[in-house]
Amino acid sequence: MNTVEFHNVTKKRKDFSIEKLNFTIPQGYITGFIGPNGSGKTTTIQMMMNLLSYDAGDIRLFGTSHNEQQLKQKIGFVYDDLYMYEEFNIGKMKSFIAPLYETWNETLFQKYLTIFELPEFKKIKKFSKGMKMKCSLLFALSHEPEFIIMDEPTSGLDPIFRRELLEHIQELMVKEKQTIFLSSHITADLDRIADYIIFIYKGKIMLQKSMEEIQRSFYIIKGKSDLIDADTKELFIGIKQTKMGFEALFEGELSLFDGFGDEIVAEKATLEDIMYFMTRKEY
Ligand SMILES: Nc1ncnc2c1ncn2[C@@H]1O[C@H](COP(=O)(O)OP(=O)(O)OP(=O)(O)O)[C@@H](O)[C@H]1O
User: Fold this and answer.
1) Pair (137, 233) in one structural domain
2) Closest CA to 129 of 94, 155, 165, 159
3) Which of 9, 17, 107, 138 could connect to 21 by a Cys-Cys bridge, CB 3.0–4.6 Å?
């Protein structure tokens, strides 16, 4: 079962276009959405949330087409920009937000308020960026959404805070079995928690795979430059020449390199390696 399905979604902007975007977000897992700046992550999320129109194609949520009521009740949208409520404190915000949700869970709200150590009666404009992110997460979680969308939840947070937030997200998955879609260009965060990865670049999907498949099939191969010729070059997705030799991204069975013995070294590729080599312009 998929929580979200994009079928041939096309969106043309002045200097940017998304052509026939196809991907799915499986139910009950954490899907990481990665891509360099300006790749179309926010545009995609806005179309998913029905905040932005598209020119062609179909977006299905929970098995049906967009439906306002369903969007509001079943989705928790987490982002750090709470400008609308800057003058409010958490208590006042709750009095506006809670009645909007049939599924509002006050016990859960109190629980996360304590866990996140957020002050209930301090104005939100006095919150740090990280506190605003936690506050957004607090409200999103308290109405027990089936699907949580997070747009860059860890950007601008310090490493300790980021790790804490990721731990909370992971805990949620274990306990509540929610579906989470998390966009980030901090790929190390997703190496840690994602079950699936969707990689977008210049409005196109470059990769959609489970983390398990990625870890099993992508490697960084290092060796002396003289090993690179027209034939070996064909094996790699991207190659970088270094002072020590070459580094290249490879997808497939490592046994292909058995004949090279210790002339090459293979390491598992990180998401950052994959993103780097797949978007490199020169080889
Ligand atoms: N309102 C808009 N009108 C026209 N073009 C826009 C608008 N918003 C964004 N774009 C363009 O669409 C492209 C994709 O932007 P988008 O914000 O979706 O990327 P992103 O992957 O979220 O980037 P980042 O990681 O930097 O947030 C960019 O080239 C951007 O300039």
Assistant:
1) no
2) 155
3) 9
Q: Is the CB of 14 under 6 A from ligand 1?
A: yes
Total domains, the chain? 2
Q: Is 32 in the pocket of ligand 1 (CB under 6 A)?
A: no
Kindly give the distance from the C-alpha atom of residue 17 to the centroid of ligand 1, in angstroms, as a whole number.
10
ipTM score assigned to the predicted complex: 0.94
246 lies in a domain?
yes
Ligand 1 pocket mutation pick from 43, 51, 184 by most atoms within 8 angstroms of CB: 43
- Alpha carbons 50 and 68: distance in angstroms, whole number: 8
**pLDDT, mean of each 10-residue run, the chain (283 residues):** 95 93 95 93 92 94 78 81 75 92 93 90 88 87 91 81 83 78 88 93 95 96 88 88 90 90 92 92 52
Q: How far is the CA of 219 from the centre of ligand 1 (A)?
A: 31
Calpha distance 280→283 (Å, rounded): 7
Question: Cα of 202 to ligand 1 centre, how many Å?
Answer: 10
What CATH number does residue 262 fall under? 3.30.70
- Backbone φ, ψ for residue 95 (5° rounding): -65, -20
CB proximity list for 255: less than 8 A, separation 6 or greater: none
Model pTM score: 0.89
